[in-house]
């Protein structure tokens, strides 16, 4: 259930410090002069009439453009729900029209906002301290080891946890306490060092709520958040239980087939359902200090704390709140959260500057496939902002005198698994930065919105197409990471020369080509041992081709990749594990052939190269968790 974070395979996995760290830029011969923001686009005044025009007409146009089954949307303004609409179908197979008043949607990660509200309620009562070691609130068997982690770290996704893509508590009926005890991730970073979106971290925060309040997490949120706000149809429940007696929409894959109802064991991170009407009330309360219908519904201070930025890597990029993040920074910020499950995408954004907010829920992947950065949900929120609160990013300009070499290198997402095939995300969610030689940077990668980036100020660059801003983060006098405006939920950390995913892909591709040459009989075999050696190398090549083919299939079918990763399918590990075993045995056989002098002149070069290619593939597979190691 990613927030905004995801790239190709990362979508299968789909988004700092206290006090905040101010990122310093890398040294340069001459810093670029700060550039003035681009001239703002004229805004359409937001009124009940223009809001209804947006929900009735613009959202319908976007639904047709993106090809999703259905979308429901609501807009609030100055404490009132001023426009609501539903377009398309709640269930394609049944032809059931989507009803904005009746149908419920899975919230996915939007539920994290509810969990944060519950944590902040206890903190306001003095029963929790956000700066205290979280272990102070946990039973001994559930306590974390290693550096101190606080509730502040959990709520801002800065605890340093590795990504966990396996379904937490996938066994139905697994209680929350067992989920947080048995699925503790490794630490990739020190607490507060970087943002790295973590479902586990929010699940743990919800477990703290349960432990300190003395009532089940779901019940505490109902008592302190949903009931006071009048969110009568919102609850933390498993989707199958909701569907049994309530009108829950069907989630659809890109081909229109039902996605099914996943069991979500890490309940506080995403196992909630809601309606657009209830989300309107939630947004109204956030915008009015927790008040709804003239009454103080949320505990004092909760709404204000959720709308503040509490962690960020750079003052010119977006940052994290408590259970929220900035969709957009600047003079007119947007604040909220999004959520993604297979076949459903949700998101809300409030604009305090307009005293307004929008919530949208889409019950299907786009016809073009699931990409949570450019899907219909994001298009609706973006269109709302562009229409009623347009804002341009700062513009940069080339600086031919600047020395930009300090920024060059390879950077990998901080939302990364510590082991297993989920490490494959790094192959796709990474960026490479080069000095273009003309006073600009060239940035390439799956999530790079443009190739050419122009200096704005020291260490800050704007995409030439105006779609994103990036800032370089320094640690101990060296460039260590990249923060982007588009995604506050994670950063890109710098790798060494040998840790570049691009280099690894080149090595793996070259190794595959070399290994494939053993499939072509260019010379007759000698004795039986050399024949066995060729058979082993041929088998290695076939196993490697199978592993590569399944990986390519996973990249082109993200829903399938999501299933493989979440369920720990052997599809991503068995072929490469077989490749590694065969490569090792082949290398031994080739060595014996060389020592015994059984190889003819051509084979003395060919077969050792093929054996080395097999070992290179095995090593690359091991780095990215595709080899099931015995330790």
TrEMBL record:
The keyword Transmembrane helix applies. Residues 56-372 form the Beta-lactamase-related domain. It comes from the Bacteria. This is Beta-lactamase family protein. It holds the Pfam family Beta-lactamase. PANTHER family: BETA-LACTAMASE-RELATED DOMAIN-CONTAINING PROTEIN (PTHR46825:SF9), D-ALANYL-D-ALANINE-CARBOXYPEPTIDASE/ENDOPEPTIDASE AMPH (PTHR46825). The chain crosses the membrane at residues 503-522, 534-554, 574-595, 607-629. Residues 1-25 form the signal peptide. InterPro entries: AmpC-like (IPR050491), Beta-lactam-related (IPR001466), Beta-lactam/transpept-like (IPR012338). Keywords: Membrane, Signal, Transmembrane, Transmembrane helix. SUPFAM superfamilies: beta-lactamase/transpeptidase-like. The lineage of its organism: Bacteria, Bacillati, Actinomycetota, Actinomycetes, Streptosporangiales. The keyword Disulfide bond does not apply. It comes from Nocardiopsis changdeensis.
């Amino acid at each position: 259930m990613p927030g905004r974070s995801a790239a190709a395979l990362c979508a299968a996995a789909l988004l700092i410090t206290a006090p905040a760290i101010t990122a310093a830029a890398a040294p340069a011969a001459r810093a670029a002069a700060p550039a003035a923001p681009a001239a703002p686009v004229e805004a359409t005044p937001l009124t009940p009439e223009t809001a209804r025009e947006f929900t009735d007409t613009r959202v319908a146009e976007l639904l047709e453009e993106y090809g999703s089954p259905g979308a429901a949307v609501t807009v609030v303004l100055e404490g009132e729900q001023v426009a609501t609409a539903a377009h398309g179908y709640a269930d394609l197979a049944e032809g059931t029209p989507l009803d904005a008043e009746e149908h419920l949607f899975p919230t996915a990660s939007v539920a994290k906002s509810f969990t944060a509200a519950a944590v902040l309620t206890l903190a306001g009562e003095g029963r929790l301290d956000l700066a205290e070691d979280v272990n102070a609130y946990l039973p001994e068997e559930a306590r974390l080891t290693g550096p101190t982690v606080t509730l502040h770290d959990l709520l801002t996704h800065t605890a340093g946890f590795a990504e966990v893509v396996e379904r937490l508590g996938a066994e139905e009926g697994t209680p929350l306490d067992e989920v947080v005890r048995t699925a503790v991730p490794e630490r990739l970073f020190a607490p507060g060092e970087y943002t790295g979106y973590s479902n586990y971290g929010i699940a743990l925060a919800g477990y703290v709520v349960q432990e300190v309040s003395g009532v089940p997490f779901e019940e505490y949120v109902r008592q302190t958040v949903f009931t006071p706000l009048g969110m009568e149809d919102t609850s933390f429940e498993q989707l199958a239980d909701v569907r049994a007696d309530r009108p829950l929409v069907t989630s659809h894959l890109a081909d229109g087939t039902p996605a099914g109802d996943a069991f979500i064991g890490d309940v506080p991170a995403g196992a909630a359902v809601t309606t657009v009407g209830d989300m309107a009330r939630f947004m109204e309360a956030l915008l009015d200090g927790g008040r709804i219908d003239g009454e103080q519904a949320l505990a004092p201070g909760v709404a204000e704390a959720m709308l503040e930025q509490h962690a960020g890597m750079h003052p010119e990029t977006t940052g994290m709140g408590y259970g929220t993040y900035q969709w957009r920074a600047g003079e007119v910020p947007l604040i909220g959260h999004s959520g993604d499950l297979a076949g459903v995408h949700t998101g809300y954004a409030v604009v305090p500057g307009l005293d307004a907010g929008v919530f949208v829920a889409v019950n299907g992947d786009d016809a073009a496939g699931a990409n949570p950065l450019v899907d219909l949900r994001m298009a609706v929120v973006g269109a709302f902002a562009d229409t009623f609160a347009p804002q341009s990013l700062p513009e940069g300009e080339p600086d031919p005198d600047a020395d930009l070499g300090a920024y060059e290198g390879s950077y990998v997402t901080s939302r990364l698994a510590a082991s297993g095939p989920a490490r494959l995300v790094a192959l796709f969610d990474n960026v490479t930065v080069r000095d273009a030689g003309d006073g600009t940077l060239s940035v390439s990668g799956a999530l790079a919105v443009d190739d050419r980036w122009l200096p704005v100020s020291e260490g800050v660059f704007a995409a030439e197409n105006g779609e994103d801003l990036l800032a370089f983060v320094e640690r101990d006098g060296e460039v260590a990471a990249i923060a982007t405006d588009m995604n506050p939920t994670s950063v890109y950390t710098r790798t060494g020369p040998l840790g570049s995913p691009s280099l690894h892909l080149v090595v793996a591709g070259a190794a595959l080509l070399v290994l494939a040459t053993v499939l072509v009989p260019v010379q007759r075999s000698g004795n039986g041992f050399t024949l066995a050696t060729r058979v082993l190398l041929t088998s290695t090549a076939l196993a490697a081709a199978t592993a590569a083919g399944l990986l390519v299939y996973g990249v082109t079918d993200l829903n399938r990749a999501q299933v493989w990763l979440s369920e720990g399918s052997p599809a991503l590990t068995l072929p490469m594990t077989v490749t590694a075993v065969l490569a090792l045995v082949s290398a031994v056989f080739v060595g014996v052939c060389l020592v015994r002098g059984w190889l003819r002149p051509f084979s003395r070069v060919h077969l050792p190269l093929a054996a080395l290619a097999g070992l290179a593939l095995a090593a690359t597979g091991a780095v990215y968790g595709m080899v099931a190691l015995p330790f």
